[in-house]
Amino acid sequence: MSKTSEIHKISYYISIINLVFILVGCNKNEISSDFEETITNITGTNSYTIEKFEDESEVVVNIKDINTSLLDSSDFKQTALIILYDLHLELEDKEYNNFIIHFETKSDIYKLDYNLEKLIFSRATLAYNKEDYNKAINILSHGVKTFPSNPQFYTQRGYIYAINTDNYDSALFDFRKALEFESSKADNLRLMAMTFIRSGNLDSAYKYLKKSNKLNPNDAATNQELGLYFYKTSNIDSSKYHLEKSLDIDPKNNDLYLVLGNIELERGELNSAKNYTEKYINKTNDLYTGSYILGRILIELNDMESACKQLNISRNQGNIESDSLYQVYCN
């Protein structure tokens, strides 16, 4: 989403006496020094007001004297999320549901607003994108507690448990909870299957994959998981079928070109393996892995000159396996 669609620019000048610290309708002792420090550190100003409108369940933060370079940077929305979520924690017992922030320059106000569900989820997403997985889990847990009937918080927390922390029992618990609210949703069935695959329970994985695929046979992610399942169970032809179907549905999933290249190499379909791997390299410029796999394929094709060229490219990226093959075939 573009910055202009996220920021509603109000083009009028507001004349406000520029006080160092004002809390409108909010007792100062409700706001901790940590929160005050958060605003100062990430905005570069300690000039702000907080207005509470209890009848409308709304809180408005006005940040004055904002550095205009912040508004021009990608950190603008992140700054707003951090401030508003921390403010929600400060005032949690007051049950405010709408959080608005104004960044004031000399002539304009820039506005972002969130309802509480969106605020919590967006703040968790920000933590996840920064690879702070424990913080993301904690924020989503807060979402579960605050909105226990919203399955989105369970699903996203379960995903982090499964993919980023290998906590499969907690992941399965969350996906099952999500299914209580969306019993026919293919995504949660697929995510349960994905978790079972990663934990080594392939029989249970296939059970849920069949259910997910029945509900949504043209889902790229479900076909990818089916492809991985069949690969792990040595059904290479079925694995190829579902991975190719996934790639047809979502051609931007570049990693599948490499997976299919490896599968075709195992099947002895060397020209097809070469084509998939070359597509992977062209789309990702991953010379470390891509050139190594392509070098292996070219060795099988007995094109030693091209194989050594690819292995040399890969070993120059630090690939030890490529260097070992290069020493065997190219010296």
UniProtKB/TrEMBL annotation:
Regions that span the bilayer: none
InterPro entries registered for this protein in UniProt: TPR-like_helical_dom_sf, TPR_rpt
Pfam families (UniProt xref): TPR_8
TPR repeats: 186-219, 220-253
Domain of life: Bacteria
Alphabetic keyword roster: TPR repeat
SUPFAM superfamilies reported for this sequence: TPR-like
Entry protein name: Tetratricopeptide repeat protein
Organism listed in the record: Mangrovivirga halotolerans
